[in-house]
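Inputs:
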Amino acid sequence: MENVDLDTVNKVKPKMPDTTLLYELSDFFKLMGDSTRIRLLWALEENEMCVGELALLLNMTKSAVSHQLKALRSAKLVKAQKRGKNVFYALSDHHVRTVLEMALEHVAE
Amino acid sequence: MENVDLDTVNKVKPKMPDTTLLYELSDFFKLMGDSTRIRLLWALEENEMCVGELALLLNMTKSAVSHQLKALRSAKLVKAQKRGKNVFYALSDHHVRTVLEMALEHVAE
DNA sequence: ATTATAGTTGAACAACTGTTCAACTGTCAA
DNA sequence: TTGACAGTTGAACAGTTGTTCAACTATAAT
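Outputs:
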């Protein structure tokens, strides 16, 4: 004897996005849900930088930075370019900028 | 003998947002970075619903749903209203809608 | 060739996260 | 008041995550 409105549930059910899409969506947000990665993205929005510069800027080890850059890279949020001994990273998509600004607006209110 | 451009680092450093803001920002994304919570938000965008309905819709226990709703509630993303034996949840802010659609656009490309 | 630096990688570890379970509160109906 | 149902809560557990460490590759300079 459940006290739920089945009509409501059945009305909403077909409007839910595809499961695959939902996972991609939450994976995207998961990637942003870490202060280190957010800082990396923010920094790269200002300037392309190599791993050592990013490490210095964020006061972290190169290893830690490299690990996080790898995550951002496999999500295609940043791209890497090797020049000499250095690997320079840059935003691959300025869609990211919009989302960041959007969220900042939400948070800052 | 570090091979980094200190000028770049020093130029970017003051442009980085305040630490507190960065944490709020990543906390916000962290909250979205879970498929259950995303689905809850999506569902509530269609209709306010009680815990039992949400549990049915998402095929989860009421307990699990309740736990996640609590997280969303303390972040002020949803609001609760008790009516009789039921507790109805609704989006407290349709800023959320914009961010979701924004991100969806990014993911869906 | 040798050495030093830049960056990457994988394993290990601690910290955190989401779900389950069981016990609980509060509300309605009989 | 008793019973049934809606929802909440905290502890426990497994799975995941981020950083560290040490070993590694690759490039440049001497």
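Remarks. Residues 1-3, 34, 36, 60-61, 63-64, 67-68, 82, 84-86 of chain B lie near DNA strand C (CB under 10 Å from a C1'). Residues 40 and 104 of chain B are 16 Å apart (CA to CA).
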